[in-house]
From TrEMBL:
<dbReference type="InterPro" id="IPR001155">
    <property type="entry name" value="OxRdtase_FMN_N"/>
</dbReference>
<dbReference type="GO" id="GO:0016628">
    <property type="term" value="F:oxidoreductase activity, acting on the CH-CH group of donors, NAD or NADP as acceptor"/>
</dbReference>
<dbReference type="GO" id="GO:0005829">
    <property type="term" value="C:cytosol"/>
</dbReference>
<dbReference type="Pfam" id="PF00724">
    <property type="entry name" value="Oxidored_FMN"/>
</dbReference>
<feature type="domain" description="NADH:flavin oxidoreductase/NADH oxidase N-terminal">
    <location>
        <begin position="3"/>
        <end position="339"/>
    </location>
</feature>
<keyword id="KW-0560">Oxidoreductase</keyword>
<dbReference type="GO" id="GO:0010181">
    <property type="term" value="F:FMN binding"/>
</dbReference>
<protein>
    <submittedName>
        <fullName>N-ethylmaleimide reductase</fullName>
        <ecNumber>1.3.1.-</ecNumber>
    </submittedName>
</protein>
<dbReference type="InterPro" id="IPR045247">
    <property type="entry name" value="Oye-like"/>
</dbReference>
<dbReference type="InterPro" id="IPR013785">
    <property type="entry name" value="Aldolase_TIM"/>
</dbReference>
<comment type="similarity">
    <text>Belongs to the NADH:flavin oxidoreductase/NADH oxidase family.</text>
</comment>
Length: 373
């Protein structure tokens, strides 16, 4: 049997297989509260060894896109309880991804129409967010110019993550993942090209890592380190992220810092594939040597690529993203060699209702199995 389909012990949480459903923003909740369709969507995909939810803003300030289900009010927490109950009833395991977008936001989604916050004041100029183009009309817009968080405000954001994690546990999640990848707030602090601060959260590699590590430590104190994972995107270049001096040294240091902590996992998002151009040769092996806990790999994986990476021993679990949109039974399809359905990209974001969300059939229910046989 492929190693991909073997059980895995995730810090005492027993996973049925090594397939992870990667976090994917779907912008499907008009009031930012998970609903019955949200519960159905995740329950349909519960045969994954582990589901990681779409990013859940930990505060109104942390939001960058309209219609994203969040986790900072009791009503939102109650909505997520429906989701976790539905997933657990199907035998699945589910972590909440906690999210703050930082500068990748627009004033129209911010409290009091204020400026988004970041490590500094440099705006993103080559990407778009989904916000209010004008009152009553939503659409893609350039992010607004951010303001730098004060030193004291960094501590307040850490507490926003703690409060959201506590709600996640009360909502029945098996753990949380901190979104520190893909050019969002923590990434903005980690990069010396963006972080030009002169306080204790800027300057040296250790100072730029402080915000993320203090957040992980605070979460571990609040809910236990074995229930806390973190997602990072080494050498990421999306959403205006640029190369920065000492980048390889910074990621080597980060691997060591993670290894000093008790974590559920580290989730490496390579954005394309693990062997993609831009990731230095030998990076995966070096990270694995420095960090001995559970490693999840994400980024363009197929079953064959997943098998190859698991055989190398550098990754423990493999995350699949887009394939899960049109294939709620992805595990079964890969395990049996059944063909994968193609998703309708026009329904990835911003469509309210079941279309392109919960209306994709399983291979067996579609009648395709009879045709194959």
């Amino acid at each position: 049997m492929s190693k991909l389909f073997t059980p895995y012990d995730l810090s005492g949480l027993q996973l049925a297989n090594r397939v992870v459903m990667a976090p994917m923003t779907r912008t499907r909740t008009p009031e930012n509260i998970p609903n019955d369709l949200t519960a159905l969507y995740y329950a349909q995909r519960a045969s994954a060894g582990l589901i990681i939810t779409e990013g859940l803003p930990v505060s109104e300030e942390g939001r960058g896109y309209l219609y994203t289900p969040s986790l900072y009010t009791d009503e939102q927490m109650q909505g997520w309880r429906k989701v976790t109950d539905a997933v657990h009833e199907k035998g699945g395991k589910i972590f909440a991804q906690l999210w703050h977008v930082g500068r990748l936001s627009h004033y129209s989604t911010q409290p009091g129409n204020g400026a988004p916050v970041s490590s500094g004041e440099e705006p993103a100029t080559s990407t778009m967010v989904y916000a209010w183009v004008e009152p009553g009309k939503e659409g893609p817009v350039l992010p607004s110019k951010p303001r730098a968080l004060s030193t004291a405000e960094v501590g307040r954001v850490i507490q926003d993550f703690v409060a959201s994690a506590r709600r996640a546990m009360e909502a029945g999640f098996d753990g949380v993942e901190v979104m520190a990848a893909n050019a969002f707030l923590f990434d903005q602090f980690l990069s010396s090209a963006m972080n030009t601060r002169t306080d204790k959260y800027g300057g040296s590699i250790a100072n730029r890592q402080r915000f993320l590590l203090e957040t992980l430590d605070a979460l571990a104190d609040a809910i236990g380190g074995k229930k806390v994972g973190v997602r990072v995107s080494p050498f990421g270049r999306i959403y205006d992220m640029e190369a920065f001096e000492g980048e390889e040294e910074a990621w080597a240091s980060m691997a060591g810092a993670f290894n000093e902590r008790t974590l559920a996992f580290v989730h490496l998002n390579y954005q394309t594939t693990i062997s993609a151009a831009g990731t230095p040769a030998g990076f995966g092996a070096a990270f694995r040597k420095a960090y001995r806990g559970t490693l999840i790999g994400a980024g363009g994986f197929t079953k064959d690529l997943a098998d190859a990476e698991l055989a190398k021993g550098e990754l423990d679990l493999i995350a699949f993203g887009t394939a899960y949109i049109a294939n709620p039974d992805l595990v079964e399809r890969m395990k049996n060699g059944w063909p994968l359905a193609e998703p309708d990209r026009s329904t990835f974001y911003g469509v309210i209702g079941a279309k392109g969300y919960t209306d994709y059939p399983t291979f067996e229910s579609s009648g395709s199995r009879a045709a194959v046989n």
